[in-house]
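Blackboard transcription, Thursday session:
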Amino acid sequence: MSAMRGFLADKPREECGVFGVCAQEKGREVVSSTYVALYALQHRGQMSCGIAVSEDGLLRGVRDSGLVPEVLDQEALDFLGQAQIAIGHVRYGSGGNRDKASAQPLVLRHVKGNIAICFNGALTNAHELRDELELGGAIFHTLTDCEVIAQVFTRERLRAPSTEKALENTMGRLKGAYSIVLMSARKLIAARDPIGFRPLCIGRVGGGYAVSSESCAFETLGGELLRDIAPGEVAVVREGELFSLKAHCGGKGALCAYELVYFARPDSVLDGVSVHAARLRAGAILAQKHPAKADVVIGAPDTGLDAALGYAQASGLPYGIGLIKNRYVGRTLAGPNSAQRQAEVEIKLGAVEHVVKGKRVVVVDDSIVRGTTIAQALRLLREAGAAEVHLRISSPPFRHPCYFGTYIDPGEALVTAGMDAEGIRRALLVDSLGYLDAADMPKIAEGARLGLCLGCFTGDYPAEPPKPFEDKYLSPLSLSGRGEDKEQ
Amino acid sequence: MSAMRGFLADKPREECGVFGVCAQEKGREVVSSTYVALYALQHRGQMSCGIAVSEDGLLRGVRDSGLVPEVLDQEALDFLGQAQIAIGHVRYGSGGNRDKASAQPLVLRHVKGNIAICFNGALTNAHELRDELELGGAIFHTLTDCEVIAQVFTRERLRAPSTEKALENTMGRLKGAYSIVLMSARKLIAARDPIGFRPLCIGRVGGGYAVSSESCAFETLGGELLRDIAPGEVAVVREGELFSLKAHCGGKGALCAYELVYFARPDSVLDGVSVHAARLRAGAILAQKHPAKADVVIGAPDTGLDAALGYAQASGLPYGIGLIKNRYVGRTLAGPNSAQRQAEVEIKLGAVEHVVKGKRVVVVDDSIVRGTTIAQALRLLREAGAAEVHLRISSPPFRHPCYFGTYIDPGEALVTAGMDAEGIRRALLVDSLGYLDAADMPKIAEGARLGLCLGCFTGDYPAEPPKPFEDKYLSPLSLSGRGEDKEQ
Amino acid sequence: MSAMRGFLADKPREECGVFGVCAQEKGREVVSSTYVALYALQHRGQMSCGIAVSEDGLLRGVRDSGLVPEVLDQEALDFLGQAQIAIGHVRYGSGGNRDKASAQPLVLRHVKGNIAICFNGALTNAHELRDELELGGAIFHTLTDCEVIAQVFTRERLRAPSTEKALENTMGRLKGAYSIVLMSARKLIAARDPIGFRPLCIGRVGGGYAVSSESCAFETLGGELLRDIAPGEVAVVREGELFSLKAHCGGKGALCAYELVYFARPDSVLDGVSVHAARLRAGAILAQKHPAKADVVIGAPDTGLDAALGYAQASGLPYGIGLIKNRYVGRTLAGPNSAQRQAEVEIKLGAVEHVVKGKRVVVVDDSIVRGTTIAQALRLLREAGAAEVHLRISSPPFRHPCYFGTYIDPGEALVTAGMDAEGIRRALLVDSLGYLDAADMPKIAEGARLGLCLGCFTGDYPAEPPKPFEDKYLSPLSLSGRGEDKEQ
Amino acid sequence: MSAMRGFLADKPREECGVFGVCAQEKGREVVSSTYVALYALQHRGQMSCGIAVSEDGLLRGVRDSGLVPEVLDQEALDFLGQAQIAIGHVRYGSGGNRDKASAQPLVLRHVKGNIAICFNGALTNAHELRDELELGGAIFHTLTDCEVIAQVFTRERLRAPSTEKALENTMGRLKGAYSIVLMSARKLIAARDPIGFRPLCIGRVGGGYAVSSESCAFETLGGELLRDIAPGEVAVVREGELFSLKAHCGGKGALCAYELVYFARPDSVLDGVSVHAARLRAGAILAQKHPAKADVVIGAPDTGLDAALGYAQASGLPYGIGLIKNRYVGRTLAGPNSAQRQAEVEIKLGAVEHVVKGKRVVVVDDSIVRGTTIAQALRLLREAGAAEVHLRISSPPFRHPCYFGTYIDPGEALVTAGMDAEGIRRALLVDSLGYLDAADMPKIAEGARLGLCLGCFTGDYPAEPPKPFEDKYLSPLSLSGRGEDKEQ
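(Written on the board underneath:)
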């Protein structure tokens, strides 16, 4: 076993990315397209990944901890071989390589025909469902919500006339956030929870249909985005035909705001909103609400660049490239030792003296969690001779937990937790600090087909949070029970 | 993913080895003892392995494909940490590294308290049980019998007053061969099927009790064999106390004869029979039934040496060391290429000219499956100048399939299938050939507490073979379903 | 042996980066600083790397193929331990992992005291020196110029009163480009060829002195750039004191222009020129000489971004972020198979429709070699709806070989070789194409302390090219001789 | 870097094994034969290995730390490709993976044509030669004697009319033990020092000639031993013709006695002596000089088995198989942690109770160094119920250092150092202990074509030991110099 990645987790983390494709004919391209698509979605999860395929009615899969090109090596691709349908998954997880068992897609034997399933999101009633299922004789191999969904689905499948109907019925029992991609021998099915917390869209790839967490996967494959899957919709691709079940549709919907701010790639379009454009708007609003007398506006690479450009455009200040990211940080499989970890923090960025020396600099970043990286960036700017540093954050401070699929490492000391803006400003030694106001967030999603979830900023959630239960906070590593053996 | 091992599979293969230990106190020794014990049982399975532990009522485990020191590296041992109870497993499997999911022990969440489980054997009604369970809503991640046992147990557990009673009830539903080791938060439980196909015994290790497929694990740990677990017995260790449930006991029992001939280590004692002594007796019977006018008796290393010594002692011919095994064959993780595979066959043995030149040589081996290795050995002996070569095999020819846990790779052209002894003799170019007669096999187990299963030699099985069903023969790799999706 | 990296070599490649540090006191920081510095110089070479240290007069080193965090893992760092002086090297090489033997620094036993040595550059008289040395009894393990330099140095050392004097004498025999870092038991010595083709500078790190190919390494370590090492200078650090030998100084000097255009990090300052500023100027000149009627200016990430900003600023057109780079491309150790390679090309970039749809787009890149990546970028822009695409290249076309340390893979079909600009424009399907003119190149290095080498653009070299000799073009992999054995 | 192997070094260690083959025609078999041969010689060195080939006058090679199938993987074999001539090497080394640079064969560029070279042995004047060479301008990359030999050879080559004559002249300057295999573009050359400390022989393989440290390599390849290379002989194979230079021949010769006792494989024949037969004789002499009233004679596997059989035959006592070796010990690449190391000691052997319980047991082993393994074996025998244990060692105690190629880890507390036999007997808790007497050693080599070196037993060496020099004892890891920088 080698060691964990993502140790420099200075940002909230997406839980997952999903993809599926149903081609007109069987071929190796189905697997290679899924490989490429997962690579395009790699930013949504770097801990584990997998692909499952259906070839002539038989399902098989590969899943393991590691990046896409590590897990899906030549041996894996050869094993997957040719297929008509494939689904794939990338996953962030808190468990490092221990978490192999939590890799998706799950491939499951079932009397009504086998299925493969993967999802992005977080259930809020997983514990209740698990209890109920266990009392009905179910056993669980992991603590993942995916396995809970699979168990509920399996029971519904026994009673339902079709896979898609079974999935629709399953949705009636699930609470929380979920974008599910499921494959039976002959069908590719995608479903999104009635709130639509996590993105999910349909595209055309080759002559077939594909579903993906983000549209960038379609463009990478030379295909195109058709439309988003609506909150509550079950979309089915069977023999080249696309149709939907809409029993759970109709609600207003609320996309996770942090998808626009940080998670998604700038070249994706989510629910009608260009991610890049949303970030430009965030920067523009910041410029309006938190102007600065400055000489140059720079972004913290990579995710702060778009908002910085928006700030510069709106303020009329020159845009500059003042921070350089070391392209080699994180490119190692070996378990980094503490010397290496420290080095990776130090090495991550460089400041361009020519841009900042003697200048009043506005620095735009998307968010602050632990604050390690931005603190290092600010130090570099001061050392490079910046006269003043004005920090602008293109999202509101995190004040509340997310129960719907965004993960913030609890071990990370949140800079923003329990500090007011002035306290943070002083802690970071900046001349001024401005956050985007939660009230302004809806403006960044101008033209969106659904609302935004701002729960982590406001505590006002579009769906009911989970009931408190200690077990929820048990390590998923330990597969532990609830303490004592209950028997006599 | 790296490649398969055991490619030189020129022998039938054991499916598994199991071990469990329950110490008086929590400590790291519980894990290290299990590590050592699995190393001592490594000959029973080299494809995958794992350990699960119980620490203060919480269960956790590590399992993966690879040899014991590969899977259970420092990171794994640190993760397992301290425990009161541990169980472990080594497994042969037909699926190479693909077969990670089939590694054991399984650690399972359950509403009545979590358990970990592993087993050695093969169910003959796995398919029926699986069908029934799936119709009840169960889902399966693997095609392993272990998962079937786990699912049946889980359902029985909901109705039973205790873990051990649930296991006893589970046994009422299982058919075939199984030596189960199961651990709950507070108990170590071991159960053996009513026929007792696979060995299972209890020993003293440190101040606690241990269970093992073979007694050699106890000696390696500085402990000692107490007794065998009887066919049908459920043995329970709880808080330092050992007790049994015997509802399924009373049958005659029939240990797999091939355990004595090949699988078990010569320093183990199975059901009252020293494995080394059994092999000496096999050699002695061969000497009596198939004498040879010869100058020296040599064994094919390593598993033919004991019988060769028995032949020499009984015949009065000198025992010689005429074949040398290259100690480095098989010591590589890398996926061997075809040049390497060929090399490993060529390199495996060397003949000692001093011992065989100009001599009439009796060569004793334990069995012939594909015949590759013995053919190479015979070639070397001829090249080294042996005047005559007389081959003696210390078991009868394989004529029938084993349904009870011995695996013969179907891809291997069985030298013995469809050939009579004279045909085999000519194919191998030996001057004479003698097999042990099936009728003589019981004599090698002199003093055994139960009978022998000779099914693979005679076709006469001590329990009912499974009903024919094609699915049984699907690759466990593919996790495939039964072909078509049944819905409309 | 695992496989080669850098397969997406669509750009000329730097041969190496060098670093050295001499601290006031012995400590582990000397090693960790060198580790961090090499990480900061990783862009100059990704094939192999190494560190050598001097502790209490004893030298030891680690060098191997792989990235910095791969080669310099915990075991390596522990082995290097504490030191007063350390030197390090990153290397591009044409030989993949075969090229382990060519990794630097070399640590060499010598009767006058051991030394470690590494360098960046390329000798033009390596063949003549090698012939002469071999006739004097020398043997070579590699085809590297570093070993030639080491052999010449060793012979000079026997006659010279000090290490630095021996190095100065060695320089009298070397022709070509070389920035050497050398360490004896008590001294850190750095020397730059009289032309100064490759950068080399001195900085302050902690309380000691450091030398580096680029100044970004000093800033990363929290230190600062003191000055460049002059062409022909031998700089010596001994017991905290810095002094120079200047017998070879005085020439005009000519820094490789491509260092400013592509190789160096934007946050480095080379010979008085900010790399970022040089690229801004290149963009500005392009805007003036090759204006475009357009709506937006975008850069090809990462190395085209600075020039794109310069173009936008000078032209008054808006700067946009229109191409997104997949941050995970290239992050795998496994030897990529062809499916993966193709995927890595496809996956490398994404276009932002919001920025380019219906727009007339100026795209700025730094150079074109094979043209694969820019062709993919242009395809993405067209698919994203760009109305027009105007390509601007911030350097002149490559027309001539470089003999002084820039490597262009001969297997790469140079888009620019044998095509005029109009031919290239048509091949790339762009609406207009403009290169920076060689005559304008000196302007980008405004304020430089030495001239620029423009040899690869003009064929006019500041030093004599090597004499043609077939052996020079033999694969460094084969360690081959000159064909026939000359004896009878 | 992964960790060291051979950590259970409870025996003296051979330094190396060498092999070379010159085929009639170019082909891939030349490489695969060398691969197989090195596998057959793997017992002579497990730290590093390599192969160099000559194809159409061009030389190339692969060498690295690791076992044969690890270093010579598919990529390496493909790189080596086809050849007419190949030489190979396996090496024990004290430096773990650090010692990559010391792997052989060395492939060296030279003005008179390139060569590859490897050797088995140890020079006693390496230090003097190194000093002299360094004063002549030579530089050294390693502390290996092989590099010293290569440097001396290179200088001689400049003056000599042929490669073989240069090697003969080189031998005039070397002192100590060396069996050299050298390859030029067209010739395979093998040379043995005038004493013949280390074995070296010539065989027929396919239609060509081969040279090898041991004859077992020829048999493994389906070839045959022709004859030994005489002490002092230079054997040359050129274009299918074999001839010799004999200027250094004529001395009496003295083969390392420990080659017969432990190093060589029992199926090899060294200088006319069957290794197996020599060990049988050693056992027989022990039976005569140190008889025991006992019930059974057993050997310590694997290297004690032959002598045990000889003891049994000579004494008339029954031979038994009383100790079983775990076949999986040592089969891991991962750096073993301390728990694993301890486990490997515990796990290495098992005792067969059936053979030893209640019996008076004679145990025969070949030698005692650290004594760890034999102590564990004796413990197991006592626990298994042996009534008496009589230990017999088939060689005299080590009392003196070996300067001629046998390595005993200085970190290992020699059980025998400074203890008399009675002290050792008490330390090991055995009922009696008998060593083979040094005076009887020559009898084990009955029929040998040369004498035996008994230096490590008697202190009486057949050649002059090296002059004492501290540098000799520096770690070869550190490539360290002699302390201080000598300059002002």
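Lecturer's comment: Chain B has two domains: 7-253, 276-448.
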